[in-house]
Amino acid sequence: MAFGDVKTPKGLGELNKHLAANSYIEGYTPSKADLSVFEAVGKNPGEKFVHVQRWYRHIESFTPAERSKWTGQAVPQVSGAKPTVAATKPADDDDDVDLFGSDEEEDAEAERLREERVKAYSEKKAKKPALIAKSSVLLDVKPWDDETDMAKMEELVRTVQMDGLLWGASKLVPLAYGIKKLQIMCVIEDEKISVDLLGEKIQEFEDYVQSVDVAAFNKI
């Protein structure tokens, strides 16, 4: 079967078909036939001709000294014309065996290794304890007037219990005209509690609480 001009897409296509079923141009070891076609091709044709690419890389891996020892006959070329090569397919029934493996097999192996690494990384990551984001919040809880029972108001505030909420220290801070506000510290888990929701819960004690403000907010 003639490949035609192996510098053209058509010729490379014919060569690619041949190398899809053969490791070399002739036989099962590199020979002068491979060298003559290699020189005619001139450069790696790229991924479009995947079997020629595999074969070209393999022939290219040999040194000039190694290539000089190859036996066999060079593929005849027509004088004065573009390189033309003829290839003969061995009659042996084992000619479908690719001694170096196909690109498809190499790709499958690479994909398998990648999946194993991703799986191992995911399992390792899953074993690590998740970092819980928390914030420290200082609230100003203001009463209606100076007659508000501040002890009772604090007691009610602390009855607000939510998953991810931890109450801390508190103190009364003078405002004006004998009125004091309750400053109370708490720690919240950011994914579970919002400051706005916490403020709404506290303001439900409307007989005692006039307003709730955030005096300080810090990520822990």
From TrEMBL:
Lineage start: Eukaryota, Metazoa, Ecdysozoa, Arthropoda, Hexapoda
Record bears the keyword Protein biosynthesis: yes
Protein name stated in the entry: Elongation factor 1-beta
Gene Ontology CC, one term: eukaryotic translation elongation factor 1 complex
Keywords: Elongation factor, Protein biosynthesis
MF GO annotations: guanyl-nucleotide exchange factor activity; translation elongation factor activity
Family: Belongs to the EF-1-beta/EF-1-delta family.
Bias-annotated ranges (Acidic residues): 92-109
